[in-house]
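Dear H.,

Thanks for agreeing to be a second pair of eyes. The structure we're designing against is below in token form, covering all 368 positions.
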């Protein structure tokens, strides 16, 4: 999600692609059977994390700020500051991706944050200050300007109790998306693997970087220390775990697809594994690129090695949101609201994501 001054038309086209204002890609994902309910796995109630890229990065920050007491870590790739759009599509396009209307005011956004705290619409300053955060941005991002990633880092520097809780990473030659290390035998597909700047049609960037592993090592330093070795590059749902499709309709709110996915490592069905919520970006849902994001980010390989459940909720394409983005500008809220609550505890998508986490952390029902 970056725009550069080299071409106004190119920048606008990129912005329209990521914010969902043009025709969605044809669906690539198919399921062999009807998805079942999201299972209750007695997952650990502590050490949950939320990570996301692009619109998923914006949503990840919204979720962490709304409910910081539910998370220990946050990872954001290729996104700008919290609540940047302030419920305005115009600001989302012109100040939170490209900066034709200038850069967002962090003072203004912090005033919004403090107002939410007073109204108990987000978590406490104390709870927020305890998180660990990993922020990444590509210096060649032409969808979300890297300067916006710098502003996100400034926000977290203000919020966190210690600078030791924050890692800010930059990749000089990377574009917009999620850097990956390609599997050893990745066959070309409909979303043809691209290079580190373009990422083909999937926004997975072939940079030979394991950003997922680096990010999760930072968010879970005590567990990274026990890492047995380098993660395999093979398709990740074949590495000591099971990738399960689940029915998202019971969490139905505007903008969510009917089916989501969860990666469950071996042994995690017995309980006490932490959970990572992984939020795709625009045009990165299963409807658009099949299981590419779900299988190849590097998250599942780390999760299998460290006993971590990875939840992959799915946004859907619609008339209001053709590119299947997460709601970081207010489209999923009631049309009569003068100030959408998408970035608060009352946000409909935030509520649905938290309900999914609740389910994974719940104990299974006992059967006679």
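And this is the sequence the design step returned. I haven't edited it by hand at all.
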């Amino acid at each position: 999600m970056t725009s550069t001054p080299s071409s106004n038309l190119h920048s606008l086209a990129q912005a329209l692609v990521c914010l969902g204002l043009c025709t969605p890609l044809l669906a690539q994902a198919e399921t062999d059977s009807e998805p079942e309910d999201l299972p209750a796995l007695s997952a650990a109630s502590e050490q949950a994390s939320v990570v996301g890229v692009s619109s998923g990065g914006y949503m990840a920050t919204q979720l962490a700020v709304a409910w910081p007491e539910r998370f220990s870590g946050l990872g954001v790739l290729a996104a700008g500051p919290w609540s940047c759009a302030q419920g305005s599509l115009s600001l989302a396009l012109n100040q939170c991706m490209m900066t034709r209307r200038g850069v967002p005011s962090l003072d203004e956004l912090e005033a919004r944050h403090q107002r939410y705290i007073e109204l108990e619409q987000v978590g406490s300053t104390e709870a927020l200050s305890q998180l660990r955060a990993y922020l990444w941005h590509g210096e060649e991002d032409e969808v979300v300007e890297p300067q916006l990633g710098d502003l996100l880092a400034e926000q977290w520097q203000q919020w966190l109790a210690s600078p030791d809780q924050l890692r800010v990473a930059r990749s000089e030659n990377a574009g917009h998306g999620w850097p990956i290390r390609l599997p050893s035998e990745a066959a070309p597909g409909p979303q043809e693997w691209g290079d580190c700047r373009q990422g083909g049609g999937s926004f997975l960037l072939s940079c030979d970087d394991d950003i997922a592993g680096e990010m999760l090592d930072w968010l879970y330093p005590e567990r990274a220390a026990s890492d047995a070795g380098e993660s395999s590059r093979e398709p990740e749902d074949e590495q000591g775990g099971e990738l399960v499709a689940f029915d998202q309709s019971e969490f139905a709110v505007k903008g969510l697809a009917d089916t989501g996915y969860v990666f469950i490592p071996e042994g995690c069905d017995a309980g006490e594994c932490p959970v990572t919520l992984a939020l795709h970006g625009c045009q990165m849902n299963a409807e658009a690129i099949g299981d590419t994001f779900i299988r190849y980010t590097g998250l599942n390989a780390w999760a299998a090695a460290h006993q971590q459940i990875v939840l992959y909720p799915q946004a859907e394409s619609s008339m209001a949101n053709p590119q299947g983005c997460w709601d970081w500008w207010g489209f999923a809220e009631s049309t009569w609201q003068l100030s959408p609550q998408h970035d608060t505890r009352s946000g409909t998508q935030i509520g649905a994501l938290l309900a999914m986490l609740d389910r994974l952390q719940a104990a299974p029902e006992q059967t006679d």
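Two observations from my side: DSSP finds twelve helices and ten strands in the chain. The first strand starts at residue 49 and ends at 53.

Warmly,
E.
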